[in-house]
Amino acid sequence: MIEYMLSMFILLFGAGDIIFGFFTAYFGSDRSRMVGATLIIVGLIVIAIFLWGAGLVPDAPDIIDFSGVIVNSLLAILGALLGFALALVIFLVAIMERKNNE
Questions:
Q1: Which domain holds residue 9?
Q2: Interacting residues of 4 by C-beta distance below 8 A, sequence separation 6+
Q3: Into how many domains does the chain fold?
Q4: Among residues 46, 80, 88, 102, which one has the fewest Cβ atoms lying within 10 Å of its Cβ?
Q5: Distance (Å, rounded) from C-alpha 18 to C-alpha 4?
């Protein structure tokens, strides 16, 4: 179970760092742009660690290995997002119907 948490933590932390780094570098001032560039670099390093742990880096030592849990973790996240999206759509349809009837 810890492998699921660790693999998704590494993936989402790296992706979040890259996304927030781009926003910070684009919208920030001089010092903030340096922070944004640092976030992008850290995010790329973390994504490289994720790819290594997923077994996608050839000839890398097997210090970390969670290649078997990646698909299950991503499917769990996809299922959660789809469930949330469906609930949101139903909520919005209900709100719009009620507003149109008033």
A1: 2-101
A2: 69, 72, 73, 76
A3: 1
A4: 102
A5: 21
The Cα angle at residue 77 between residues 7 and 48, in degrees rounded to 5: 30
pLDDT of residue 1: 65
CA 13 to chain centre: 6
pLDDT, residue 99, reads: 59
Identify the pLDDT of residue 30: 84
Which residue in the block uniquely carries the two structure tokens 């000839």? 59
Amino acid code (one letter) for 46: V
HSE-CB for 37 with a 13 A CA cutoff: 6
Q: Is residue 9 a contact partner of residue 45, using CB atoms and an 8 Å limit?
A: no
Report how far residue 74's alpha carbon sits from residue 33's, in angstroms, rounded to the nearest whole number: 32
Per-block mean pLDDT, blocks of 10 residues, the chain (102 long)? 77 90 88 91 92 80 75 81 89 72 58
What pTM was computed for the model? 0.67
